[in-house]
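@channel sequence for tomorrow's demo:
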Amino acid sequence: MFAEALKKRDQELLKQGKIEGMKTAALNMLYEGMDINKISKITGITIGEIRKLKMKK
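structure tokens (generated this afternoon):
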């Protein structure tokens, strides 16, 4: 049971890491002047979320 909990936690951390990595990539694409629609298509991040990232930069 403990091993299952650790495995689940590790999977969640990996998922979060992948999401953060995509957000970082999207932010870098914004810095390079790439179109928001193209960024969304490439990363799978919603346009709304990309706009939020843009406002934070």
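heads up for whoever presents: The CA atoms of residues 26 and 33 lie 11 Å apart.
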